[in-house]
Write the structure tokens for this entry.
Amino acid sequence: MSPPNLERPVQNRPFGFSGVISERVDYFPVFRMKPETNTDHRVALIGLPFDANSSFMKGAAAAPPLIREALYSDAGHLWTESGIDLGGGLLIDTGDLEGDIGGAMLARIKLAITDLLQRDQLPLSLGGDHAVTVPIMRAMASQYPVLNILHFDAHADIYDEYEGNRYSHACPFARIMEEGLAQRLVQVGIRTLNRHQREQIKRFGVEVIEMKDWRDDLNLDFDSPVYISFDIDGLDPSCAPGVSHREPGGLSTRQALNVIRRLKGKVVGADIVEYNPLADFQNSTAMVCAKLVKEIAARMLES
């Protein structure tokens, strides 16, 4: 029988959060982490149920609770492949951010992420559509003046505007690069570029690894802190069908995990976005998101 996970309230609730904010406390003495794990920080999970800037098909706002359900399911556990037990207090679940579906929500996201950073916690956000990455990066850039982004996606999400909306989920990286929030942007898994996007990539000096040029021995080296933004449609639809914009020819889950595992650099934050439960099959994509949560959190703790 597995030892029980008990919960106790955490004081000083972060700005704008709903639900129970808790640390999982296990009262059984077990070995919890590899010696090199960074115990000075903890990963803070935060749900961002926002999809007002989605195009074509909404539904990503419903994702955070389903990812949590998969993460904490009795079908698995919270140990990572690298031997870290996230159930030992290294992963704090802060609940979902409440707010309206308009522009005020984006401002609240920035404040909430800033609050986590000020508590010396590493934010791992569950979207929501990709528009949430802009306010997250505004908060991250205040803490890390020199910051890189590793972006997994089928799409470059770098339109200047899309359907008249400059804050569409198709535009976040145009806003991020315009505002100088990242020194370097590396995009992996891209397979939908058009002329405008290629012009934007050239304009901002983005490094793009298109799927047509993929090599399994890819290794990425960053000499300053790294933020991972993972759009689930970067994976092939056979691995993650629960997305609004399915694009065949993408990464396998293992290929993506290998890139994360091998990257050199200090990972200081991440988001997992664009999971749409309305398009999923038996919550299979929720399970993929939960796997990514665990392995990205491990990489953050090992940095």
Q: What stands out?
A: The CA atoms of residues 39 and 301 lie 7 Å apart. Confidence is low (pLDDT under 50) at residues 1-39. Residues 284-302 form the longest helix (19 residues). The helical segments are 63-71, 103-118, 133-143, 172-178, 195-204, 253-262, 284-302.
